[in-house]
Write a structure and sequence with these properties.
This protein is mainly α and 336 residues long. It has one domain. It is built from 13 helices and no strands. Helix 3 packs antiparallel against helix 10, helix 4 packs across helix 13 and helix 6 crosses helix 10. The relative contact order is 0.14.
Length: 336
Amino acid sequence: MTESEEAGTGLTSKQQRQPGSMIFRIMTWLLAAGCFYLVYNRTEAAAHREGQTVIEYLVVFFKDADWTLWLLVMIPYSVFFFLVDSHATWRVIKWFNAPKIRLFNILPIRASAYILSLVNEQVGKGAMSLYLLKRHKVPGWQALSSMILIGMVEIYQLLLFSFIGVMIYYDLVVQASTSIPLPQILLSVYSFAFLYFPLHLLYFRGRIFPGSTLREKPLLHALRQAKLLDYVLIVLFKAPNMIGAVIVYTLALDLFGVEVLFGQMLAFLPVIFLAAALPLPFHAGALLLWTVLFPEFPEVGVFSLVMHTFFVLFNAVIGVLFLPKANKELFIDSPD
């Protein structure tokens, strides 16, 4: 095939992908709009019961909050999250990509990735891959494989914490299941995830489907190398952030006048974070789930937007502080 034919084929392939991509974007925005519509209806109904408009209802909700104490809770947690997140990322990269890398090298790159994540989470991961390529000669696909491993562990960590919370506080989950059969849905998800994981380990260790070549792809390098102990350790490294989030959200809701139990947050927050991972604009899935799980307080949907917005913006501020060091790491000549 000539170069011109290859170019033509590539163009045609790109053109063929564009309609599918456009349809996907339209669908995600429509789903997000539907989520916001349902949240608005729930909030409007609550406001109507109080004899207020939606705006008046939300103004009262936010006006009564203790914003000073809220900042004193959120700022330390954001810094704590950054340090724990950076440490877990460093461990994975050290194990599977660059054995000589130091935590001090990861901090500025991880922080600067928070800035890029404001635009797109994948772009933030790309910055980490670029750093590993330039400074440690790690092929891009292998670096990305570590990000995939971290993402998988994050999902399983949320499922594990949620499972523990649901088992301990099952009655609270049943009480919250006024709109959807939440216990049945969650138990089905747990069953599927926990049944898949041993098969995942066996496959990437070559114990099943030995003739498969998929596991040999560079993109799956870290999954191929990871052992059960590695997964356990990564969960433990990242666990302080999940525990911290449960504590912070419990305290923050109390500061906004919404009384929730620690057990409710332990059972519900990991599920809400999973919903936030859905590819919907403005984390609309999590927004709706907040109002489903706390039907007496539909305003918590807007509360979740405030929490998320502050969190990502403050993390971006941390990134700005580290940006000069990150630029130096990314753009100076590679070390000998």
